[in-house]
Write a structure and sequence with these properties.
Gyrase A, domain 2, binds flavin-adenine dinucleotide
Length: about 290
């Protein structure tokens, strides 16, 4: 279980044992099936007989992810239980078309004690915070009166975007990497970013190998293409234009190449230390 700012995420499936037993093997099986004379069943038997070292599987999977050959990583799925998030968040989340969702209904559930999310920026302005809470609570009082007289599906029209909700989300690794790439970006909206930090933390807990793949998309791409980072304030990766400018200088022979093996595909500062502490603070806008 991971909880941040009232947002709770549990990775329901797989558990560590299932992940260890099947996930790398399944991806390896899909890759090898494409390039081997052997039948998939024969390849699977080799894997099960321990004839394929884990490092070999990892190397192949990493190269598949790096080169964008995505179908092979569509064979493994992750199911998350998500609670305490606002409808503002879920409206964004359900836009992703390769994930499956089941969300608490506002038609069939008559809420006795609806809850809501108070953004930190509002909380920090005492007058606004008070007015916001009064307004939402007044809405909820009227809702509670309304559900005595009209269907919940109509009373819910009163709910603000801030109202909290729960859902189950299942997605394959390819889509999870894609979603995390967008939603872990430092320019993503704070609440959905907090959710994906929780998602990454949960995956890290069962498999640092797969957890490390959940990173802002610039980490995979090598540059940042976000319009609002043209000033380069987020330093995870340089803006695309800057990279192309430098490349152009290099191409014209104005720069010399220096040996540098310090660049990692999934840099250590995006990972979590052994205690599970989140070092994400290092990525914030300076
Ligand atoms: C920072 C940010 C700001 C946003 N702002 C807005 C906004 O102001 N208004 C708004 O409406 N939305 C907004 N969105 C949502 C965005 O437009 C997408 O709806 C959302 O990111 C999910 O779509 P996706 O492209 O990421 O792909 P997913 O639905 O997650 O699909 C994954 C990939 O599959 C492929 N794919 C999926 N469906 C198709 C298809 N039909 N045809 C071809 N390829 C497909 C694409 O390669 C896609 O990238 C925002 C998203 C982000 C991250």
């Amino acid at each position: 279980m991971t909880e941040r700012r009232g947002i709770r995420v549990d990775l329901i499936f797989p558990d560590r044992a299932t992940c260890d037993l099947y996930y790398k093997s399944l991806i390896y099986l899909s890759c090898r099936t494409c390039y081997s004379e052997k039948s998939p069943s024969e390849i699977w038997e080799d894997i099960r007989a321990g004839k394929v070292p884990e490092e070999k599987m990892e190397k192949l999977i990493e190269s598949v992810v790096a080169s964008g050959h995505g179908t092979t990583i569509e064979h493994i799925n992750f199911t998350f239980a998500i609670s305490g998030v606002s409808r503002t968040l879920t409206h964004q989340l359900v836009r992703h078309r390769h994930a499956s969702f089941d969300q608490q209904s506002q038609r069939y559930v008559k809420f006795k004690h609806p809850d809501f999310t108070l953004p930190q920026s509002v909380e920090e302005v005492p007058d606004l915070s008070k007015a916001f809470q009064q307004q939402v609570e007044a809405n909820f009082e009227l809702y509670e009166e309304m559900v005595q007289q009209v269907p919940a599906e109509d009373a819910r029209f009163l709910f603000p975007n801030a109202v909290k909700t729960n859902l189950i989300m299942t997605t394959n690794l390819r889509e999870l990497i894609h979603m995390s790439g967008l939603r872990l970006c430092t320019l993503a909206q704070w609440e959905i970013r907090a959710l994906f930090k929780g998602i990454r933390h949960e995956v890290m807990n069962i498999s640092p190998f797969f957890g490390k793949m959940l990173a802002p998309h610039c980490v995979h791409e090598g540059y940042c293409n976000e319009y609002n980072n043209r000033d380069g304030h987020c330093r995870i990766r340089p803006p695309k234009e800057q990279v192309l400018r430098i490349w152009e200088k290099y191409r014209r022979g104005e720069l010399i190449e220096a040996a540098d093996d310090s660049i990692q595909r999934f840099p250590a500062h995006l990972q979590e230390d052994e205690s599970g502490a989140d070092q994400e603070g290092m990525l914030e806008k300076k």
